[in-house]
């Protein structure tokens, strides 16, 4: 399930020039204006959930601008960068500023990890592997040292899942028939657990949408960035880890391995890299459950914002099996486990 092309950018939706100090503390472009209809626009794509446009800043960095889709809820307030920890050895947790109708980030890459994974060259997989390791270290710092915003609550993705479970749209009707009531009840129980306090009783700040699409490896220089802000909330650290694990497991299910991929890390190895870089502490059972939550949220987001597709029937079967196994197939096998997962 892929995003549809965005409508052409217009000066009504995006300012013709962005302030030079828009995203600190990195060096800012010097006198470089961004023409929303000119050659500086390097990428644009959209779903009903969000519109994303990427411009070259002319100095090796890039502006990423995102706004909610026509049918999506407005962005929540974004906390100041001071609420997030510095991560010298991990991904930068890049906080945006409001620009026009959306939010603007400044990073050193023009494509996300999700985009690089569509490139089957070994070097691209190695780039994503490094970015996932950096993301894990950045998330660990956020979970340990981040300052929860006073108004932070459940992350929007979990709220959308609960709203969908109470709805009567086409996907929900088919899910009732295919899943029965027990599987939905288990998903909602897991969502409640994921949004609750950590094992030590403390509510931790969580990214809320730690995804391959928000993870930006540097193109030539600079550091990996994790676009952060409107989905920040409180919950269990396993929520963020499971979100990325689930996305990688979903991609492994949907996209077969390239026969000429060479020695680059495969989808299972990428999950190992992520979890190993994060380190000990997370509950693997809850991480697997959160991976299933992420896949279910993606499934219902697609149905809501893109419309019905027969492929969603395959997703219902896929998620049913994952629910029955509590997400264990999404995780790399434990040492000594002879069973390899997808």
What is the element layout, followed by pairings?
Elements: E1 41-46, E2 50-56, E3 62-68, E4 92-94, E5 97-99, E6 102-107, H1 113-116, H2 122-145, H3 156-165, H4 170-194, E7 204-206, E8 215-216, E9 225-227, E10 233-235, H5 237-254, H6 267-278, H7 284-305, H8 311-324
Parallel strand pairs: 4-9
Antiparallel strand pairs: 1-2, 2-3, 3-6, 5-6, 7-10, 8-9
Helix pairs in contact: 2-6, 3-4, 3-7, 4-7, 4-8, 5-6, 5-7, 7-8
What does the oligomeric state look like here?
single chain
**Number of DSSP helical runs:** 8
The chain-level mean pLDDT equals 84
Could you give the order of strands across the largest sheet? 1-2-3-6-5
Rg, rounded, reads 19 Å
Decide which structural class fits the backbone: alpha+beta
Range of strand content = 5-15%
Which outline best applies?
globular
Uncertain segments are 2-38
> Which sheet architecture does the biggest sheet show?
5 strands, antiparallel
Quantity of strands, as a count:
10
Indicate the percent of residues in helices. Answer: 25-40%
User: Element order, helices and strands?
Assistant: EEEEEEHHHHEEEEHHHH
* Distance from first to last alpha carbon: 19 Å
What can you see in these coordinates?
The protein is α+β, with helices and mostly antiparallel strands. It is 38% helix and 13% strand. It is built from eight helices and ten strands. It has helices at 113-116, 122-145, 156-165, 170-194, 237-254, 267-278, 284-305, 311-324; strands at 41-46, 50-56, 62-68, 92-94, 97-99, 102-107, 204-206, 215-216, 225-227, 233-235. It has a five-stranded antiparallel beta sheet, with no helix packed on it. Strands 4-9-8 form a three-stranded mixed beta sheet, covered by helices on one side. The protein has a two-stranded antiparallel sheet with strand order 7-10. α2 (122-145) runs parallel beside α6 (267-278) and α4 packs antiparallel against α7. The protein is globular. The model is unreliable at 2-38 (pLDDT under 50).
